[in-house]
Structures are given as structure tokens and as C-alpha cells.
Amino acid sequence: MKHEQSNTYFSQAKQVIPGGVNSPVRAFTSVGCNPIFIEKSAGSRIYDADNQSYIDYVGSWGPMILGHCHPKVVEAIQSAASNGASFGAPTYKEIELANMVCEAYPNIEKVRMVSSGTEATMSAIRLARGCTGRDKILKFNGCYHGHADSLLVKAGSGAATFGVPTSPGIPADVAKDTLTATYNDLADVKSIVALNKNEIACIILEPIAGNMGCVPPVEGFLQGLRDLCTAEGIVLIVDEVMTGFRVAYGGAQERFNVRGDLVCLGKIIGGGLPVGAFGGKKELMDQLSPEGGVYQAGTLSGNPLAMSAGIATLKLLKEEGFYQQIEEKSAFLEAGLRQAATAAGVTTCLQRVGGMFCTYFCAGPVNNFDDALTSDTEAFGRYFRSMLDSGVNLAPSQFEAGFMSIAHSQEDLEQTIEAAAKALTAL
Ligand code: HOZ
Questions:
Q1: Residue ranges lining ligand 1, Cβ < 6 Å
Q2: Span from the CA of 63 to the centroid of ligand 1 (angstroms)
Q3: Domains of the chain, CATH where assigned
Q4: What does the pLDDT look like over 299-315, one tens digit per residue?
Q5: Of 278, 286, 288, 359, which is most buried with the most CB atoms under 10 A?
Q6: Is the pTM of this model over 0.85?
Q7: Residues in contact with 1: Cβ distance below 8 Å, sequence separation at least 6, in sequence order
């Protein structure tokens, strides 16, 4: 495929936007080609500036579980916009979405809306620190929780794609309070906690890591963290920005039956509009300002357009059989991709939970970030470019997850498998 218009736009963008993009992975740097500029979308497809169509498995990095431009979501946004784009004052829609979130997550009794996943995790950590009076936090190598200073340490995809584990610009004094452990290694966590007794405010994790590809928790890992946090008075923050309403209506916590003290949400709850949220039990959440002393605020928090898109989206997800259909589509794709790799004689490791998946170019299994780094990223780059050329849009980094939507048709899936067979054979 030719990308003349996209290439022209990219040159123009680089003049006025750092690297030509407003979020680094979008620059396609690690896959060895220029980014495509998107003009429009519908259902399972996006269309670039050269009017070429692609079956889309990025889905705005997760939110578009209904596919693009679902008529009910579009209508909800249009109708909200006609009443006003932003007030900086409370609206009923905030209560409606908060109720839906609380119903879906029994450990969320109160929820605060923010404008991005980064704000959600940053604020949840501040709350955990405020509630415990402790400064240190523990995160996992390869887990990404947005780009707040204390969380941009060994942060997976965005940073890993560019080979910078921890960003310059993070004060050493801030980074020193961020401890890192190996994902899926409970013994490692226990020894770090023992070494920092009564000093750790929270443990934060992606319950299925989606910023080092797609790494499910091994048996007992989540429950082990839960027990450890309870015993040590540590706040367990489950970052479900990616997995919430994605791998089940109640997210990974429903799927694995383990509950955090605080939960971060984003992506799907905004139906594609900028949103984030964090919530938990009343005792913790009531320590937030104005009830309590932990400050957190935002002009666009609870924005009526985002609330409306989120409400419309969640209503559709509640329909009978929704997640079963996502599972079936994803399982079909997984089986086809595995078969294509075997037929081509290429060693791959496909990992998937519900509608979230990743193909690594190594034997696997991939249980942590070091395992993910064994994937042949050059091979991934060639695979990515061939798929794009065949009209399939994958995330432009080995360390990101792919996302299925309800709009992907059987024909889309078959076309994707065919494209993969071609790409893998040519590797
Ligand atoms: N690494 C981010 C998603 N996991 C990238 C988001 C974006 O570029 O929009």
C-alpha cells in the first residue's frame, strides 16, 4: 500500500509536534515505517489519509470494544454536546456512570472521575500515601500506569519501545520511592516488602499486563498479593484501565476473583472519549478532598460528553452474551494465528485473555518483562509491516496488546488470518 498522504502529513507534523505525534508509540519508530494518519472509522475498520481501509485491532488502545462509531455512542455524544460541552460543575450523568461502575465492581463503593488513566493511577497513589502515611510504592517491571513521575520507572511499552526503562526528567528523589519487582514473582515481592517493612503505601499492578504484550497472572499471584497487602497494611491498587469492562464486565478482578483496595479505570468507561476513574471502599475514598485532606481535582473531570459516551457504551456491554461473543471471536483468531505460525514454521507465542492478545516471536511462555524482551522484535517489525500492507492494523510495538471488538466480522477474522499466514511465511 502507498502512504503518500500519510507521509506528507508526518513530515508536516514533525515540524510542529515533537516526533510528529502526541504519544510516542504512535510514531511507529520500533516497526521501521512511518505512521498512517487516520481520517475516519466505522465498525471494525479505520481509514487512512490515502483512503485505504484496515481491520483495526488497536481500537484506540482498548476503548473501542463496540467497534468504531457505534450509532448509540455517537448519538449520546451528539446529544450531550448539544446541551453543552463542559460546565466544570456537577451533572446527573456523573451519578449515572458512577452507579454503573459501583454495580460492576463490588469493591468500589465510591468513585472519582478524572480525565485519563494517568490521572487515575497518580491520584490513587496519592490517596494510598495519604491514607497510610507511607511514601514508598511498589510496581512491577514492565507494567505501565501512565506517565506520572513516580510511575515512569521500568514502565513497559512506551518506554521499552524506545529502550529507555526510566525517563530522564524523573527526579532521583521521586524515583527512589518507587520499588520494582518482577511480574508474576510473588517471592520477589515478599522479599522487597520484608526489606521495606511498614514503609510501602501501595502495590500497584496491571492484573493482566498489557504493556509488555499480554501477560496473564500466573496461578496464585493475584491472591498472594491480596493476602500480603492485607497482612502488611499495604493498599492494593488494581489498575484496570485496560482490562476493566474488557476481559469481563467486572474486569480482571471478576475474572480472577481477587479484589483490590483501590481500582483504576479508563478507556472503555469513556467510550473513546478522554476519561479515567479511581474508586474503592468508602473509608479510603472519603479521605479525598473535599471530604478528606487528600487533594485531587480537574476542570474536565466528569465531563458530560465523556460521561454520556461511557454510559451508552456500558449499557451495550450489559447485553446478554456480549462477552461470550468477544471470547468466541478472539478464540477463533487465536486458533487461526497459531495454525498460520505452525504452517509457516515460525516460532511464536500467542497469549490471550478474552479480547486482549499478543503474538510474541519467541518460544514463551512470557510471564514477565524479561521474558517479553526475548521476543525477536525485528521479526515483529517485519510481521507488522506485512500485516499493515495487507490491510490489518496492529499495535505498532511488540510490547502492546491487540484488542478485539464486537464489530469484527467472521470475514474480518478470516482475512486477518490469511494476512498473518502470508506475513509469517515471508518472515
Ligand atoms: N502505550 C500506550 C498504550 N498502552 C500508547 C497510547 C497512545 O499512543 O495513544
A1: 23, 25-26, 61, 157-158, 211, 400
A2: 11
A3: 4-69+320-426 (3.90.1150.10), 71-317 (3.40.640.10)
A4: 999 999 999 999 999 99
A5: 278
A6: yes
A7: 50, 52, 388, 389, 391
